[in-house]
Each structure stands twice: as structure tokens, then as C-alpha cells.
Specification:
By secondary structure, the chain is α/β, with parallel strands linked by helices. About 40% of the residues lie in helices and about 15% in strands. It is built from 11 helices and 8 strands. The chain has helices at about 15-30, 45-55, 80-85, 95-100, 105-115, 130-135, 140-150, 175-195, 195-200, 215-220, 235-245, and strands at about 5-10, 35-40, 60, 90, 120-125, 160-165, 205-210, 225-230. It has an 8-stranded parallel barrel with strand order 1-2-3-4-5-6-7-8, surrounded by 5 helices. Helix 1 (about 15-30) links the parallel strand 1 and strand 2 (about 35-40). Helix 1 crosses helix 11 (about 235-245). The longest helix is centred in the C-terminal third of the chain and has 19 residues, at about 175-195. The protein starts with a strand and ends in a 5-residue tail after the last helix. Bound molecules: 1,3-dihydroxyacetonephosphate.
Length: about 250
Amino acid sequence: MRKPIIAGNWKMNKTAAEAVKLVEELKPLVAKAKPEVVVCVPFTDLAVVGEAVKGSKIKLGAQNVAWADKGAFTGEISADMLKELGVEYVIIGHSERRQYFGETDESVNKRVKQALANGLKPIVCVGETKLEREKNKTKRVLKKQITEGLAGVENFENLVVAYEPVWAIGTGLTATKEDANATIGYIRRIVGTTFGKEVAKNLRIQYGGSMNAGNAKDLMSMRNIDGGLIGGASLKAEDFAKVVNYKEN
Ligand code: 13P
């Protein structure tokens, strides 16, 4: 059985003061949540949100991690730094990092290995762009992102994959539940042929891209979809709580 996992990706939103307010509003609304609940907040919010979520259902996540232990890597944040603040999950290879900050499957792979080696749980993002989709390249792109991004990984229990079609992020366009389920099924098959059937069966794969209170229940009803990575709808406590509590809606 794969336990559903709903994670908010706040992206570059919320100052520390705003973050505490949001998470305090969220706590009572998700106190009885069935899925695992994670908020992936900006680095500058980690310390205060980490304090605020102690003893609650909410787990702390970051949005990136350096692939080196420490040293001359200006602007990077190490796994040790994250762990000291109580971080459990870390998003790696988000399409915005790939698009704007030169993240590649190779750097994703290094970060994933570094996270796992230091006891952090990576949420590894994959997904095709609109152009790649139109050119029928979706499968090829996903295969490369999975095989190269996860190359050499052994400890899959602590790893989550998020399928986020880039054309669905922040656009209000969601993949249909059938489409998302089929594509995630394809990702599972690639994982199966590359890393083994058992790994594929147990790996949690989220959907992300304009997932919200209105479509979460439908998406989560699909066999291959084990959770959601939520952008815009994670920035308001009520909206995010509705996604987390999708079963009751
Ligand atoms: P939206 O939910 O705003 O489309 O963002 C999805 C996303 O990128 C989560 O990582």
C-alpha cells in the first residue's frame, strides 16, 4: 500500500512572518488528515515554520539542496543545514529550476544522491513541456529524466517522484485524470524496467500542475496517482486543506 502524500510547494512566496501565519491557520484544518502532509517553503521560512509545525501533522520540506557537503558554493544550502532545521522532504529538479536556473538531469541526480545519503527524502520532479508534448516527445523526455535523474539510486523507500507536465503548472490547465494516470503509469513502467518491479510497485508518484480543491478528489481516485504537489492552491490554508482532505470533499 502506498500512503498518499500531499505536498505544498510555496515557491518564492511568503516572508517568514507570512509563513507562520499561513501554517498556524493550516494546522487545525489538517489535524485529522489521512495523507502525509508536507509544506515545502522558501529557505528563509524553514526555521520559523519548522518550529510552528512541531507536534502537528505537517512535515517540513525545502525546495532544493546542494549536491556538495559544504564549502565554496555561493548561494547553495547544504543537507546538514536543512536537517538541523527539521527538514524531512526536499523538492529536487522542479521544472522552474530546470527552466530558469540551468538544472539538468545530471545535477538533479547529484542532488538526489546527496539528499538520500544525508537522510532527506527527495521529491523528484519530472515532466514534459508544451512543445515536447506537441511533438510527441513526452515518453522520451520522461524516460531520460527518470533514468538519468535517478541513476545509481538504491534507496527508493525514501524517494517520491512528482509528475508535473510543465504546460499544466500555474496555467489552470490540468491534465485529465485519465491522462495523468496513464502518464504516471508509464513512469512506473520505466522505473520498473530500470530499477525493478518491486521498486515500481512501492514508489509513490504524485501529480502536480493546477491541482486544487476542485479536481483533487478525481485525480486521487486514479490507481497510479499517489499524491499531489500543489503550487498556487497551497498558498491559502483553506484551499490547501481542501486538497489534503480530498476524501471528505
Ligand atoms: P500550480 O499548482 O500552481 O500549477 O504549481 C504546480 C507546481 O509547480 C508544484 O510544484
